[in-house]
Structure formats: C-alpha cells, structure tokens
Amino acid sequence: MVYLVGLLSLVFLVLAILVLTRLTSVLKGVNGDTPTQESEGASVSNRVNGFLFLIFFVVGAAAAAWSFIHASQFFLPEASSPHGRHTDNLFWLTMSVITIAFVVTNALLFYFAFKYQYRKNHKATYYPENHKLELIWTVIPAVVMALLVFTGWRAWRDITKEAPENALAIEIVGKQFNWEMRYPGVDNDKLGNYNYKLIDAANSLGIDLEDESSFDDVTVSNEMHIPVNRPVLLKIRAKDVLHSVFIPHMRVKMDAVPGMPTRFWFVADKTTEQMRNETGNQNFKYEIACTEVCGQGHFSMRTTLIVEDEDSYNKWMAEQKPWLTKNPEYLARVPEKLKAKAAKYAPADAAAPADSTAAPVEEGVGATTSASLR
Questions:
Q1: N or C: lower Cβ tally within 10 Å for the chain?
Q2: Residue 336 CB-density burial (10 A; 0-12 exposed, 13-18 middle, 19+ buried)
Q3: How confident is the model at residue 113 (pLDDT cuts 50, 70, 90)?
C-alpha cells in the first residue's frame, strides 16, 4: 500500500511539472513572445490536460472501488434484528442510487472536459435553453428522492410505533458515566413509576414506592439480558446530560434526553452464542454504547447485551433480587396501605425502620414530576 501511494505521488509530481512547463510556454505566448510557439504550446497543453482528466477519472474510480472492497472487511455483520436488516437494505439501496448518479455525472464531467477542449478554429455553440432537458433532469431526481424519503419514513414509522403487547419493557437510564437498567419483576411483569425528586444515593433511578408495581422491580448496571425472538421495548431516560443508546449489531440508536423520555423497540433474533458461531469469534459480545460525547468519561459509557433463549433468560431473572429487597430501609417509604404487600420483598432478617428518613433526598434531573412507565 505504501509503495502504491509513493508511486502515484511520483506520477502526479511528474505530470504537475509537465503541466507547469507547458503553462509557462503559454504565458510567454500571451505576453507577445513567439506567437507561433504560443499556439503550439496551447494545443499541446490542452491535449495533455484533456487526457489527464480521463486518466484522473479512471484512476480515481479504481482507487474508490479498491477502497470500498478493502474496507468491507470492517463492516458490521448482518443485523441481528428484522428491522435492522430492513434498515440495511434501505441504506444499500440509497447508496446504490447516489453512487450511480455520482459516477454518471462525473464521467460526463471529465469526458466533456476532454471532448470539448480548445482547438484552433473551433467555435463553441451557444445553447441558451432546453425546457425538455431541464424538465427531465429536475423531475427524475425529484421522484427518486421522494421515493427514498417515503421508504425511509415508512421504516422509521414501523420502528417507532407502539410496541406489541407482549413486549418486555426495560428502562435504561444514562448518566455520567454508565448505564443503569430496570426490569419489571417476575410477580407482575410491570415497571413501576419513577419520580426524579426521589433520586438519592441509593435510589439512583427515583423508583416510586407509592406504586406497588415497583416493589418487585430489578435494577442492574453491569449488563443487560434479553430473550431471543421476543419484542423488547427500551424506555430511555437521562439523568444529567444528553446520551444516546446505541446497539450497533441490532441497528438500535435513540437519544437519551434529560426531561424527555424516549423509546425504541426491537426484536433480537440471534442469540449471543449464534453470533459467536456465525462470526467465528468466541469472544463476541453485543455492546450497548453511547454515541454522544457526554464528558471526559464518555469512553466508559458501554455495557454488554446478552441475548439468550427464553429459559436462560427466565433462569437469570429468577436469580435477581428486587431493588426493594436489597434496600430494605426504603420499606419505611411505602404507604401504610401497601406495607403488607411490600413486606413480601423484605429480607427475612431485616425489619422496616419506624421512621421515613431512609436516605436524604437530592434534587435530580429527570423526567416529569411523576411519570408512569407502564
């Protein structure tokens, strides 16, 4: 590769010197020195430049093709979700259309520079207008663009519409500098409410214990588990600055905006183990990353996504303890009428405090005062 670049640089250097030499000859003719030589120099220079245009186009096209083929080894593998494959198809369709248009227009541009180079006694034709031609090159691109925009809009509509009723809802919250996830518990399969005013050192997600659906909610921060072939609805929040949830192999990307919950649903149809077999990389892992530069620790905004079969997911879920079980001191915040239900999640060796000062409440940044995640 280095030798090829060096060779091309040398060739272009020689050609540049040649062009400069011819240009000097032409300028001398313009200044009145040896008019015969000026005519000959101009003729030779135009022929050289005309051929250089063709050579530049051919070499440039070959270099672009080689660059694409060489870079293809670094492309992401086939998407692991149906909507991801549809999105990829739209991407390559758009790339094909604009590549064809680019090659055709540039081929004509360089060819015309060669064909209509200066020639002695050759007179240019004045061609002021052609309404038919103008209509063609206006309407055709407009129709093609409209079709591309429509197909893209339809794909985006399908991605952002309401998730199926059987979708697994998972809350994912970005903060400097990690992701936190909250799962609905196995008892009611519903996420409880949250309230940003309840955020403190232990209750970092602002779980609202006035909602009994939150009693069995599970929180994790080291990895996300999801079952294969089941719709997953990500309910996305940010606690401080703008973040962005990005799962490249699923073609999932959605901003996490402070004060404005967003969502994205998808179906993963390839387990982590299947991807390891397909890629031949036994260390393969799905990754959740942040694609917004959110501060000095932005590089650490990544976690692992594990896609597994339903039985493995249920087994993992059964091993997780509800957030309330791990933080029994918050039982004091449960309303009196719900304490009997909440007591089910208290550790066997822990008793609820008599007062309600479990932890100091800090003002946080989040969504609306009380938002439902159901």
A1: N
A2: exposed
A3: confident
Which 3-state string (H, E, C) describes the chain? CHHHHHHHHHHHHHHHHHHHHHHHHHHHHHCCCCHHHHHHHHHHHHHHHHHHHHHHHHHHHHHHHHHHHHHHHHCCCCCCCHHHHHHHHHHHHHHHHHHHHHHHHHHHHHHHHHHCCCCCCCCCCCCCCCHHHHHHHHHHHHHHHHHHHHHHHHHHHHHHCCCCCCCEEEEEEEECCEEEEEECCCCCCCCCCECHHHCCCCCCCCECCCCHHHCCCEEECCEEEEECCCEEEEEEEECCCCEEEEEHHHCEEEEEECCECEEEEEECCCCHHHHHHHHCCCCCCEEEEECCCCCCCHHHCEEEEEEECHHHHHHHHHHCCCHHHHCHHHHHHCCHHHHHHHHHHCCCCCCCCCCCCCCCCCCCCCCCCCECCC
User: What CATH code is carried by the domain that includes residue 203?
Assistant: 2.60.40.420
Domain span at 274: 168-347+356-373
What is the number of domains present in the chain? 1
> pTM score, two decimals?
0.75
Residue 148 lies in a domain: no
User: Is residue 265 in some structural domain?
Assistant: yes
Mean pLDDT for the chain?
84
User: Which pLDDT tens digit goes with each residue over 204-242?
Assistant: 999 999 989 999 999 998 899 999 999 999 999 999 999
Q: Is there a domain that residue 310 lies in? A: yes
